[in-house]
Write a structure and sequence with these properties.
heterodimer; A: about 130 residues; alpha+beta; ATP Synthase, domain 1; 5-stranded antiparallel β-sheet; B: about 280 residues; alpha/beta; Helix Hairpins; Pyruvate Kinase, Chain: A, domain 1; 2 domains; 5-stranded mixed β-sheet; 6 helices; about 15% strand
């Protein structure tokens, strides 16, 4: 079996990434998942988090928000509504968004929207680190 | 025969119209280029989304899910994508005709309009408008599609509408734009190509949760795709319309020039005849 699989990450605006990877990690609704080549066919729902792509030359990070990942033994396709490389993330803005979301949750209790905003902000900060 | 001055005035007026149509054509060409690039860069996502959605729909066939179940009672929600500006040939009227000719009673339809032309026309014809987001079509963002689909799904889940249709114009190429009316929900897989060469897919956490999450994304993706294709078609249609208008103006200017020259020649001949006749009379 090949050591690599094809990884495609697609957002509504562009083809975010296409290449060969040996290992990929991302966050799903069930928790963090790592996928090696030859994985059984599976569709995961994504949760805002950091995506780690292990390529031949090293590791790349990106922030990934809502979407899903389709896994096949030799190919992984990730359809994300938002995906960002670390250099595209505005750290100050993400930090601000995190504080704002935390404050909103503290004030009027947790609701789905703010929870999501907080998770996105944390994912951005983590990816940009 | 019309007087020289009249012909001249008419020709000048057509010349200035021609300048406008020429300029509009150039603007539409540039905008078309941009819109087409944008529509094309969005294609991989929407195509894959469609494929995935189809896949999961085939797998979940027969499941008693709110996004799949046929129900009546509610109204039909139609998303109508037109433009904010006119002078685009048949672009807007083709979409409007699709909506008006969808075979549904006016009272049974709720419209979600994007584009002022469709909104104004259908509102004047007595359709009920649930939401108007005409400002979006000037520069559609994915976020706008998310907002619109959230609102649609809200109304769908509350039972206000029991069906969601989308009327837009598909952009095939610069000259071919096809108005289309497709159904978003309840979702059904197209049964044409049932050959499925893909591996059986497992869904995590489970089929229902995946359906819950993917169907809204699928609806959003289709709406966003329709925005982009609509903008490209609008500019394509405007370019073609303005091109035809410019050609017509040129043809008319040519005709009027000939007529003007003939009138001028006629006037000169007449003047000469009069002078000669006058001098003959004096002899």
């Amino acid at each position: 079996m090949s050591e690599f699989f094809t990884l495609k990450i697609i957002t509504p605006e562009r083809l975010f990434y296409e290449g060969q990877a040996s290992f990929v990690e991302f966050r799903t609704e069930e928790g963090d998942v790592g996928v090696l080549p030859g994985h059984e066919a599976m569709t995961y729902l994504l949760s805002p988090g950091v995506l780690k792509i292990h390529e031949e030359g090293g590791m790349r990070k990106a922030a990934l928000h809502t979407g899903f990942a389709e896994i096949m033994p030799d190919e992984i396709r990730i359809l994300a509504q938002i995906a960002e490389w670390p250099e595209e993330i505005d750290k100050n803005r993400a930090e601000e968004a995190r504080i704002r979301a935390e404050r909103a949750i503290r004030e009027d209790g947790s609701n789905f929207r703010e929870e999501l905003a907080l998770r996105k902000a944390i994912a951005r900060i983590e990816a940009a680190k | 025969m019309a007087s020289m001055r009249e012909i001249k005035r008419r020709r000048e007026s057509i010349e200035s119209t021609e300048q406008i149509t020429k300029a509009m054509k150039l603007v539409a060409t540039v905008k078309l280029q941009r819109a087409r690039d944008k529509a094309e860069s969005g294609k991989p996502y929407s195509r894959l989304m469609l494929e995935t959605a189809k896949h999961i729909l085939i797998k979940c066939r027969g499941m008693n899910h709110r996004y799949l179940k046929e129900s009546n009672g509610g109204k039909t929600g139609i998303v109508v994508i037109t433009s904010n500006r006119g002078l685009a040939g048949g672009y807007n009227s083709n979409v409007i005709r699709l909506v008006a000719g969808s075979g549904r009673e006016k009272e049974q339809v709720l419209l979600y309009t994007v584009g002022r032309k469709g909104h104004d026309y259908l509102k004047a014809r007595g359709y009920e408008i649930a939401l108007d987001r005409s400002d979006v079509i000037n520069a559609p963002l994915y976020k706008d599609a998310i907002e619109l689909s959230e609102k649609l799904l809200q109304d769908y889940e509350s039972g206000k509408i029991s069906e969601i249709l989308l009327a837009y114009t598909e952009f095939r190429n610069t000259v071919t734009h096809v108005p289309k009316l497709i159904r978003l929900l309840p979702a059904s897989e197209e049964t044409e190509e049932e050959t499925d060469d893909r591996l059986p897919m497992n869904f995590e956490p489970d089929d229902e949760a995946v359906l819950d999450s993917i169907i809204p994304q699928y609806v959003t993706s289709l709406i966003y795709d329709a925005f982009l294709e609509g903008v490209a078609s609008e500019n394509g249609a405007r370019m073609a319309a303005m091109d035809a208008a410019t050609d017509n103006a040129e043809e008319m200017i040519g005709k009027l020039s000939v007529e003007y020259n003939r009138a001028r020649q006629g006037a000169i001949t007449q003047e000469l005849t009069e002078i000669i006749a006058g001098s003959n009379a004096l002899k």
